[in-house]
Automatic annotation (TrEMBL):
Keywords: Oxidoreductase
Cellular compartments per GO CC: cytoplasm
GO MF entry, a single one: oxidoreductase activity
Family matches, as InterPro entries: FAD-dep_OxRdtase, FAD/NAD-bd_sf
Organism: Aeromonas molluscorum 848
Name of the protein this chain belongs to: Gamma-glutamylputrescine oxidoreductase
Length: 425
């Protein structure tokens, strides 16, 4: 049995009944591999449209990045729309631009419709360490306003000091359409919503093979599912199940700590409005306070998803750089999780043959885009593929160096960007 990784989220998860493991032969319209947000959002949109759906999860619902992440509802994609506008035909860029803020809206709609208790808070801030980053945030504000987000506020040095108890930043951009959630409780709530709509979820049911065909046959150790469509949603935890996908992305680990509860007063000295924060560096820090007033602080990237020898040694200095006043605070939880990086830092959606679909590679910013992915997948299977295809047409480049050398190559690239951030150029 593979349980949730020991984290603050697992320790504070809402009570939930486990799902059975698959030990029979089933038939359905759509078989989904993976119960993270990509798989869950797909399943929920599909059952709402009347499809019969089976979700197969190797471990537990939210076992992967979806149950371990920073909980930040970050709008747009991991690479912003200017990059897409510069490289895509205008019609495709227009469609992708029109979806920039939809993922966050989907999350809020799910929380409301299914009454999911996951500590939803409004507002997220991008914090600038340097004038160059602040200049870029001004451009981002213009771009996002152009695409319909009128809830943005640029913060100067004084302004950002009002939203974070740190002298570190020169300014920032507040997005009131951003926000944060308890990510595992969101995943668990979505799984319950699927169950309530007649969808079937199986945990401890790792998929061992997919036989293409009409129907396709998806096998686990003790069962099998015949399905008209298959959705591959294993992201950074997929391994080599689908060789076509393995070479064009790279699992990366990022680490998180949660302090002891600080008490409401001390937590509000750090983040008075309870916004979540991320900085603008390539290897970024992200942090927020939790429902029970802990500081949850993440950062660092370990390419190739190796476990760091000591997460505290890696993250505590980052936390103290931002909040030196926390030197006396104890850390109660540390964990690591994998996200999936792509060469372009844009998500990869597509089809293998005509009835195996995949969505993956959100490159560190996936809370909103995974929710959008599920909606677009359900549209595509019901005959409206235009918006899914706007993503599917983005190029999927393999990492240079192949499976052997992609880690050192990418780590060297990251080191360069990180140096650039530190120099402020
Ligand atoms: C530590 C961390 C912090 C992050 N913070 C943020 C943040 O604050 N904001 C943000 O926007 N993004 C963040 N991200 C990224 C975001 O969490 C991910 O992009 C998103 O959760 C990916 O969801 P997913 O469903 O595609 O993948 P996952 O959540 O990883 O789910 C994949 C699932 O597939 C299952 N699976 C794999 N192979 C098989 C198989 N063969 N059979 C059955 N099941 C299988 C896995 O067990 C897993 O449960 C963070 C990521 C990490 C790791």
């Amino acid at each position: 049995m593979t349980e949730h990784v020991k984290s603050y989220y697992a320790a504070s998860a809402n009570t939930h009944a486990p799902f059975p493991s698959l030990d029979e032969q089933l038939e359905c319209d759509v078989c989904i591999i993976g119960a993270g947000y990509t798989g869950l959002s797909s399943a929920l949109h599909l059952v709402e449209k009347g499809y019969s759906v089976v979700v197969l999860e190797a471990a537990r619902v939210g076992f992967g990045a979806s149950g371990r992440n920073g909980g930040q509802i970050v709008n747009s994609y991991s690479r912003d729309i200017d990059n897409i506008e510069a490289s895509c035909p205008p019609d495709q860029a227009k469609l992708l631009g029109s979806m920039l803020f939809e993922g966050g809206d989907i999350i809020r709609e799910r929380i409301k419709r299914y009454d999911i208790q996951c500590d939803l808070q409004q507002g997220g801030v991008f914090a600038a360490d340097t004038e160059r980053q602040l200049h870029e945030l001004k451009a981002q504000q213009r771009r996002w306003q152009k695409w319909g987000n009128d809830q943005l506020e640029l913060l100067d040095k004084e302004g950002i000091r009002q939203v974070v108890g740190s002298d570190r930043y020169v300014g920032g951009l507040l997005d009131k359409r951003g926000g944060h959630i308890h990510p595992l409780n969101l995943a668990l709530g979505e799984a319950e919503a699927i169950r309530s709509q007649g969808g079937r979820i199986f945990e401890q049911s790792a998929v061992t093979s997919i036989e293409p065909g009409q129907p396709a046959l998806v096998r686990t150790a003790k069962g099998a599912v015949k399905a008209r469509f298959v959705v591959v949603a294993g992201n950074a935890y997929l391994g080599n199940l689908v060789p076509e996908l393995a070479g064009k992305s790279m699992p990366c680990g990022t680490q998180v700590i949660a302090t002891e509860p600080l008490g409401e007063e001390r937590a509000r000295q750090l983040l008075p409005q309870n916004y979540c924060m991320e900085d603008c560096n390539y290897l970024l820090d992200y942090y927020r306070t939790t429902g029970d007033h802990r500081l949850l602080y993440g950062g660092g990237v370990v390419y190739g998803a190796r476990d760091p020898a000591d997460i505290e040694r890696l993250i505590i200095p980052k936390m103290l750089k931002t909040f030196p006043q926390l030197a006396d605070v104890k850390v109660e939880y540390t964990w690591t999780g994998n996200f999936l990086l792509t060469m372009l830092r844009l998500p990869q959606f597509g089809r293998i043959g005509h009835n195996i679909y995949y969505m993956q590679g959100y490159s560190g910013h996936g809370v909103t885009c995974t929710h959008l992915a599920g909606k677009l997948l359900a549209e595509a299977l019901s005959g409206q593929a235009e918006r899914f295809d706007a993503f599917a047409k983005l190029p999927h480049y393999p990492f240079p160096g192949g499976r052997l050398f992609r880690i050192p190559f990418t780590a060297a690239g990251a080191a360069w960007y990180s140096l650039r951030d530190r120099l402020g150029v």
